Amino acid sequence: xxxxxxxxxxxxxxxxxxxxxxxxxxxxxxxxxxxxxxxxxxxxxxxxxxxxxxxxxxxxxxxxxxxxxxxxxxxxxxxxxxxxxxxxxxxxxxxxxxxxxxxxxxxxxxxxxxxxxxxxxxxxxxxxxxxxxxxxxxxxxxxxxxxxxxxxxxxxxxxxxxxxxxxxxxxxxxxxxxxxxxxxxxxxxxxxxxxxxxxxxxxxxxxxxxxxxxxxxxxxxxxxxxxxxxxxxxxxxxxxxxxxxxxxxxxxxxxxxxxxxxxxxxxxxxxxxxxxxxxxxxxxxxxxxxxxxxxxxxxxxxxxxxxxxxxxxxxxxxxxxxxxxxxxxxxxxxxxxxxxxxxxxxxxxxxxxxxxxxxxxxxxxxxxxxxxxxxxxxxxxxxxxxxxxxxxxxxxxxxxxxxxxxxxxxxxxxxxxxxxxxxxxxxxxxxxxxxxxxxxxxxxxxxxxxxxxxxxxxxxxxxxxxxxxxxxxxxxxxxxxxxxxxxxxxxxxxxxxxxxxxxxxxxxxxxxxxxxxxxxxxxxxxxxxxxxxxxxxxxxxxxxxxxxxxxxxxxxxxxxxxxxxxxxxxxxxxxxxxxxxxxxxxxxxxxxxxxxxxxxxxxxxxxxxxxxxxxxxxxxxxxxxxxxxxxxxxxxxxxxxxxxxxxxxxxxxxxxxxxxxxxxxxxxxxxxxxxxxxxxxxxxxxxxxxxxxxxxxxxxxxxxxxxxxxxxxxxxxxxxxxxxxxxxxxxxxxxxxxxxxxxxxxxxxxxxxxxxxxxxxxxxxxxxxxxxxxxxxxxxxxxxxxxxxxxxxxxxxxxxxxxxxxxxxxxxxxxxxxxxxxxxxxxxxxxxxxxxxxxxxxxxxxxxxx
Amino acid sequence: xxxxxxxxxxxxxxxxxxxxxxxxxxxxxxxxxxxxxxxxxxxxxxxxxxxxxxxxxxxxxxxxxxxxxxxxxxxxxxxxxxxxxxxxxxxxxxxxxxxxxxxxxxxxxxxxxxxxxxxxxxxxxxxxxxxxxxxxxxxxxxxxxxxxxxxxxxxxxxxxxxxxxxxxxxxxxxxxxxxxxxxxxxxxxxxxxxxxxxxxxxxxxxxxxxxxxxxxxxxxxxxxxxxxxxxxxxxxxxxxxxxxxxxxxx
Lengths: 850, 250
Prior knowledge:
The complex is a heterodimer. In chain A, 61% of the residues lie in helices and 15% in strands. Chain A is α+β, with helices and mostly antiparallel strands. Chain A starts with a helix and ends with a helix. Chain B has three helices and 14 strands. Chain B has helices at residues 6-9, 18-31, 243-248; strands spanning 14-15, 35-45, 51-63, 66-75, 83-87, 95-100, 105-109, 136-146, 149-158, 168-174, 180-187, 190-203, 206-216, 221-232. In chain B, strand 12 (190-203) and strand 13 (206-216) form a beta hairpin. The longest helix of chain B is centred in the N-terminal third of the chain and has 14 residues, at 18-31. The radius of gyration of chain B is 17 Å and the shape is globular. The A-B interface holds A 74-75, 78-79, 83-86, 110, 112-113, 115-116, 125, 127-128, 131-135, 137-140, 195, 197-198, 201 and B 44, 46, 48, 50, 52, 54, 73, 76, 78-79, 81-82, 98, 100-103, 105, 107-113, 115-117, 119-120, 125.
């Protein structure tokens, strides 16, 4: 403690900037960890909150996936003696059209019986209005909104509220305002309640319900009631407590959660590197101090503990700040993330406030502390091993002994072999990730030796460029590999990650473009929502006939895309007339004969699944998939798999006739429209819009617009990746600045002597600039090489664990080409400060140094 | 009788005292009519003193547990055209459908929802049902003077297997004209609703209370129903009391 107060605290006070940088490393890591997980938890919690609030006293929910089921199911459920209350539900998310208000969750219920399950806590004095549900039911334009929503929009009883409906924008009348809290707090308070039979019309649901909320007879209990209802309804229906919906959402957004975990781990790694770098520099900087302490009797353990205590203190403080910064970060990201996930998965959640989770914050803080200790461990160990004699001899300590080099090479070789064995001999995720980590460790162990080798290789080039300055710069690197190895390693890792990310992004974009080109090739898409992923509105099948009659239209294909459960995971079912689909956008299956597969699929004798579903579920041609539909269990052989990006959890292509038969649902999400040769896209679009104007809600999207929408979603998905890339590169650059600063301090006497013997300032500057650029070159070469390996692991990770998408390995040469000037330019820029410091320092002080 | 069926809901049963059963049977016999029609005015006075008015026309074909009734709302304008079809069965709970003209479709009122309030009034949907004598067990508790008339005081309990929101009811029957004058409905031994009959008048030979006041004790709100243009045994067509007729707007 005494040592800490006398030495460490003085060092911190003297090097405030570096101390701040050290703290910022941990703060950054913890902030990203806490922030990202808080955002994810908040979105999940908002979804669960909406489910809970909407559920009210509901004990069981009966559903049959997104398609819902026929009304008659309600009577069967109500007739079951174990049911004390059964209320049908339709849920839809609609755009309010009000600026800044976004979407509104419309909960459609049958007010005659729903109040036995849900309490509509109404504003004082208005209860009679909704307590008289007759008016509410008799007027299909009746709507009840939360006070929060009413206040935001200046609504009162009797106010008009325009909402998008299947019949176009329609004015609803507010006939009830619910008090804040309870049901009214669902979906961030943007909740409206309307009559379910009016909602069937408004949202084009025919005579179907989304689900039935059930209250079990108190004498029988929900568990037994569940068993009875399952037996009554058959396997096509799920009878589960409301909380199950949260689990489905979590499983649907699993890819997002994995990405977040990956980003968090990456952020903590960056934090470790910053700590490692800062402490390595501190050890270099304070070697004389360490030498003196050791000479005065301080033990190795005391020196190690001193540095570990410093890293612990940095960890404690940095992590605490990081937790706070993480909450702020989460607040900044929550609305964006929530909206993005809603668009991506079409789920009813609206998160506007973050849910702080004390265990998560504690975990973040603890991980920050661990990361700090991990980052400080090697420098602390290195400090404890400083030879007091060498420590007082400039430069000696920077050398790597031949033994040390050999040990590192041997360790790297061993780890590389184990890594290769893991990958070759096992296909388990554990083996894969162990192989990944070991390969990176091997590269890290090899990096000092490789950096030294590369520095030697660079020496002639540098000499050729600048005979004196180039030689001095190269020698500085060659003589002090320990000084630069941390920076080179950090740069190498950062660039490897950058290459990995860029490669995955590039391959993803290329694959998605290829998929869009073939699969999404209609000229126009006629949808009931402005977003192609929204599912609240659906068309009646008759719309197809009218679209066919529009002049200039050659072909119309009706597509129904509900999410259904395959086992316990929601997947996307793509129901389309396959015979007609393949005439316009045929894609060859990845295995098997395409003609046979499509013929059998068109006859309803099988399903073609997406490649990612096949990979995630281990399905192959000939396997049988089982889909429990309301009208029977559909067992279909897998006829083949296709590259398909419609859903992260996978998709199943079946003929629409089969879907209609088993789900009893004839509604349509989207019509794919192909034009006659020579027909003007704008004119046909206008004709369709005019044909349905004032009658129903229709959006006509051009191929370009759909492509742009999908690519926008992809951009948003990779947006996080680009931030990570920027952070990685920034950290690498900070490492160069640190290294050069230490290099200048180390070489003050040498630089002073150079100036004394006649070297001009320009030469000194050039020396330092060249040294910086050389570090950049070494880091670049190693980073781009390790990037090739990292890309392999990243592509495999996407395939195996994130989305089951088979990406083509293609090195991102363009990114690499961009990184070269960026890193070299950044290296040069980072050398400007240290170089000026070197040339403007006092010559006499420099010569007195040491 | 009876307008709202509540009375009939309590008319019958296995009796511990033979007198009780005979009394209710006699009430039912005297109220018997082939059909009934009236124009009802409904006034709901909530606990805060807020008043809402509605009116409807009521037609009933048949009587006592085997009847069909249709209730057509006539005012206020927001609810005009809404109809409620009630098919009472002797051996089970009634079937009820509501017709909403603006949506041009019917909705079934579930059995489980019968305990909920009938469109904001203090009556429940169950109170609209007519139930047969066999649905209840009766017990004569004694005699009592109510509103200046000597009455029998009876207790009615739903028979095993007959669903009802009420665990028991107390009935007061005027001894002079065999009509119910008050019914108290209990849920788990707590008084839930009290129905009082008034303005008795003999119409087509049937004594009928033309004013019904239902007091929801728990909500402390009241609903007053008055019968105008009351008549019995008018000719009515069976086809009028069907879902198809509702859909056709009859």
